[in-house]
Amino acid sequence: MLWACIVLPQLALDGVRRRRSDDPGSPLVLLAGAAHRRVLQAVSPAARALGLRPGQSLASAQLISRDFISLDYTVSDIEHCQDFLAAWGYRFSSQVSLHFPRAILLEIQSSLGLFGPWPVFEARLRQELTGLGFAHRIVVAPNPLAARMLANAHDGLAITDARQLPAHLETLSIERIGLPKDVASALVRMGLRRLGQVLALPRDTLARRFAASVLAHLDTLQGRRPLALQFYTPPDFFDQRIELNFDVESHQALLFPMRRLINDLATFLAGRDGGVQRFTLHLEHAEGEDTQVPVGLLSAERDATLLFELARGRLEPLQLTRPVRNLRLLASELPAFVPTHKALFDERPQQLQAWEQLRERLRARLGDEAISQIKANADHRPECAWAPAMDSTPPPFLQAAPRPGWLLRQPQTLDERTLQVLAGPERIESGWWDDGDVRRDYYLIETSAGLRGWAYRTVGVAEPLQLQGWFA
Prior knowledge:
MutS, DNA mismatch repair protein, domain I, elongated, five-stranded antiparallel β-sheet, alpha+beta, four-stranded antiparallel β-sheet, 30% helix, Dna Ligase, domain 1, 18 strands
């Protein structure tokens, strides 16, 4: 097996940046500790350029500069980001683990046949992580613990042959192989600074001086013992929010954070190989209840561009009576996604949209009631031969006889002197069971302007032709 370890060295900062809409290059620090003793836990590169360092007290940092943004450092935010990235990684491997903090383990041996050789696979992982806004280092090794420890000193290293692993492990510093701090300090005091020096000692000597867990760790690092991992299982819902940092009173200012949330939703859906049929945007205000913007689809989708356009169509007609402080997206209806079958050569012009996308865009712009799907009824009367469909199940095929695509609400009397009868009559007798009995002879007619219609004359009644529908 081959394991890729993705280390996220500034996960907390990246996670905070993704939830905020301010300038990504502005100085930012995350604070931890008691209220009377706030300490800088994480520092952005721009804040480092000001002279700020992790471990400084907030008071000391403010003496150096006050031109930085400070936010609270919370473990729950880090866990949330790790879960999101695990859902992303699940797209590439069925074995994803969050065993180590601020790192993701992927078993990639079984995925190379699908995503190509490792250099191609690695380039795709890096491109998507960069697009998601996460700094990273990636190392591949034959066992997960070795991949994680090697990532402390390398980026881009790929050991695909187990015979090459010992040579790379031996150069690792004792302080960076995951041993307890007291054990690493004792080894350094003994003059042992590299892992290779420790492995060269007699095993029974190490067993007498250190606990059995130390030898077990070294064996696991070399691949002699398996590492027990708990693998990630994708959840059945998506819930994420973005802090806007200021009161928003226009729809335009909400589009950027909304796009970020929907892109994350699309990434989550791709990871679990599913779609979304309904999600809700929560516009959180400083006071009072949230304003909810529901977005429903007739069928499951996961294309980020389509979902964004649908959400935008629902949001823009909304009147914002109160400023918006935060934006949250909640999706709990995540059915299976069935891709649309396409021909090998798509003859549709590039600028035209597929019917499914056009349908959803029209519903978002015009309202749910403006667009509806129809289904065929087992009735020969034209006005009773169809009805609105209540779900997205494709309607059955209509009868083979030609029928107009546009039926009039009320039949219209025609001037037969300007018409030409092209076909007919076709007699329809039906409806005796519901007091709607009809006996009609139908004709295919053409007007002097070249329009083709469907007209009838009631059997036994002296009346002009009655136009009931037009052909396209």
